[in-house]
Structure prediction request, 634 residues.
Amino acid sequence: MLRSFRQVFKSNRTPMAAVMIVVLLGLVAYLAPTGGAISRDTVVARVYGHEVTMQELSDHMQELYQRYGKQASPEALKPFVQSQALRDLMNQKLMEELAERHHVVVTDEEVGARLRAFLRQYPMLLDTKGGLKPTAELKQIFQETGFNPALQERAIRSELLRTKLVQQSALQVPVDEAWIAQEHRLRNEKVAFQQVAVPVDASAIADPGDATLEGFYKAGGERFLQPPRRVIQFVAVDRAALGKDLDVDEAALKAAFEARKGDTTEFKARHILFKAEGDTQMQEATTKAQLLRQRLVKGLDFAKTAEEQSEDPSAKGNGGDLGWFTASKMVKPFSEAAAALKPGEISQPVRTQFGIHLIKLEGRREKKFEDVKAELAREISGSRFNSRAQERLEQIRKRANGGDLAAAAKSLGSPAQLSQPFSNEPSAQVEGLPELSQIAAEVFRMKVGDVSKPQAFPGRHLLFRVQEELPEAVPPFKEIRAKVLAAFRVEEARKQAVAKAQQALKTGGLQAVGPVTDQAAAPLSGMRDFVTHPGIRKALLETAVGQTTPVLWTQDGKLWVAKVTSREPAPALTFETRRSLIQDVQTTEAQKLLSAELQSLDQQGRLRPGFSSLWGHFGGIYVNTAAVSVQMED
Prediction:
């Protein structure tokens, strides 16, 4: 493209220069990140050119809130819900991109037909002739019930895309006779057997010393090949580093107590809940609660009535007893209503986000300073620790200015340390860095030389810089001696266990190997532990009745051997069952292929997240972190 620009400029410099400047300015404006206030049209993510807007994210978050119910407040759930909603929408956009690449199209007519069929399931949406009510009436019902047809339409379109992609891929899966025969046996041939599965204790193998281990290490070749590893420079600030700065004196404790006087009153109450959503249900529940209150005021047993009528599941078995609580522990309308009561009084119906409540206050008490002194001290000290640790690490970060942390850290009394090399694996461990499992993914997302933001962990706060990346290689023996020893012990333990088991089979049969369990006759496809293990699956299919399988290893590292006691052959395949089986196998494989393609697209897109580049708009995956405060998982 730039070559074309140059040619144009050479041929007609003056008028075309002005045109190209305008074009380039427009391109820059298009590629520039969205700034300013966040609105419903703000792009929160872009997946290969497919945009996710703030409006789409908000709508899907509301949908997820409804799915999760009311077991927690929206604010408490927000980080999780926002992350899940964004991930769902980005997966949908990945599906759309894959569909475009495979030339798969879902028409509006197909979606409309599915949506109408979905709506016809609900009698309240139908007229007297069984058809859907007029659009104006449907909109009114949707508004009253909170149903969003646009969300349902999006879900239908996504499902149709997936179905068509799977169908297209399934036609390309070659299935031969041997595959069908084995699959037919797995699903329909019934096998009964006795089995032994015994654990092996590798820790019983003694350390043979460096000479033996080095020989084992050298013979292992690429067995000890390590993926790319990284070294980080990190600064940790714990409580000891801040010393007396965290001490809380009596005056501060009393000031905090006075400031929280409003939350030192505790209430003991019972309640009866009538669940409701929307104005119509709330009105019905209010009427029901008012009628019940009249009977309760006249002497009806509150606890017994809560057991029988409350729609709060926790009321069953405790008569609606909420125990002692402070105002901050309950939603505001509930706590205000409880605070206005005298012990023994029953409230008027109280509306909250959960429905309509009747509250009976049973007690009220004031916490004294001495009762909460220790709790306040822990809370204030913890708050000071968090804020001051973050302040110190932020100062180090600014002084380092993107470079080495050592000098800046030393000037503020918190030495920097270098970690041992580690890989981005769940099992990776580094001495002195217990937080590794929580930061490893971020470390490998960053570039060498990048500095993290201060991060809080239980007991200490951390700041780190990616110091270097070591390429894929077999590390020196001394560096991974512990890993070599662990592998040696496992191999030696397995050799000894197999030899012992084979000898036991010769002299005493299956019972001599270990405790025997019986597996009743059933198709292997119903035995997940065996079907997913190719060796065990093959052994159970090929071992004759009365014979013993080879000694194998289960996926969880147990020595396994079995004796087949009976086998009921699968019925002969008919034309219909063969066709159905082929379609099923092809569909299953197509779903695996589709998942793999989507995962590959996702990984490739994440390598090019640039929003302000042409590739970032059309060939990558971008998340607008200024608009959403979530950490996307790999």
